[in-house]
Amino acid sequence: MKNELPEGFTVRVPTPDDAQTVTNLICQCDTADYGEPDYSLEDVRADWRRSGFELQRDAWLIFAREGALAAYGNAWDTGAHVRTEQTCVHPNYRGRGLEEFLIERVEAYTREIAESKTIQWIMSMDHVATIERFVQRGYQPTRHDYVMEIVMSEAPPAPTLAESFVMRAFERGRDERAVWACTQEAFRDHRGHSDLAFEEWAKGFFEHADWSSELSTVVMQGDEVVAATMAFHFFNGGWILQLGVRRAWRKHGLGLAMLYRVFGECFTRGISRVGLGVDAYSLTGATRLYEHAGMKIKNHYVRYEKEIT
Hints:
Elements: E1 9-12, H1 19-34, H2 41-48, H3 55-58, E2 59-64, E3 69-74, E4 76-77, E5 82-83, E6 88-89, H4 98-112, E7 118-124, H5 128-136, E8 140-151, E9 165-169, H6 176-187, H7 198-206, E10 211-221, E11 224-234, E12 237-245, H8 254-268, E13 273-279, H9 286-292, E14 296-307
Helix pairs in contact: 1-2
């Protein structure tokens, strides 16, 4: 298919100065699609700092004739696949061919530039028309994910642990490498996991202004880190990005205790909502743990993939 821009629109690559404009567009799309914004300026900047991501090669801005930003697209070659995140079209400009242009642009990018030739798009199960568009182009579902959330009107239960364990907040200058090693080990039992180098893992947390050492949690037994949670305080609530228990220390209630600690720390700070993402068919039974802690499914997403030739 020809990757032609619809008449009346122009495309250019972003610069760092475009980050706020892109953030505004993503928030407008989130509000239209989900009822509230769920992305911040710092999130956009963090996306653009990712290892291997080159802003002027891997992202596109589409403008309407009157100068408004109509759409944003990007492609990130992770090595395992080309992933698109926050690719969106402003509600006022949907149905004019921009969606097809962005899909074709990502496919052309994958064919010509990317090392991986598998494209992965993540979309809401509620967006039936969008899913149908991808199915017609040969994309197949490969995984289901949930966003789960707890909304607290009262303090959560206090965490409890056996006496041999100590749970505390993350300490900079002490915990970085031990928590990195702990989470890499814990997530090797998760579908599709690939270990991250320490520098890449650290960049995703310590260079992000919304990462919270106070909410992030470490569990120790003696001098050994056996479980950890890395959490953020975003403008709309708390967010747990990683929660992992090393295999030899599972079945001791550490996951539930860490959840209750994060919930409690959020509640004392006036944060009533805490969310996280999870594989809907988690091999470690994570969804059952989160439901036991009082979390409920908020959104259901599907990953669609296609091999490009």
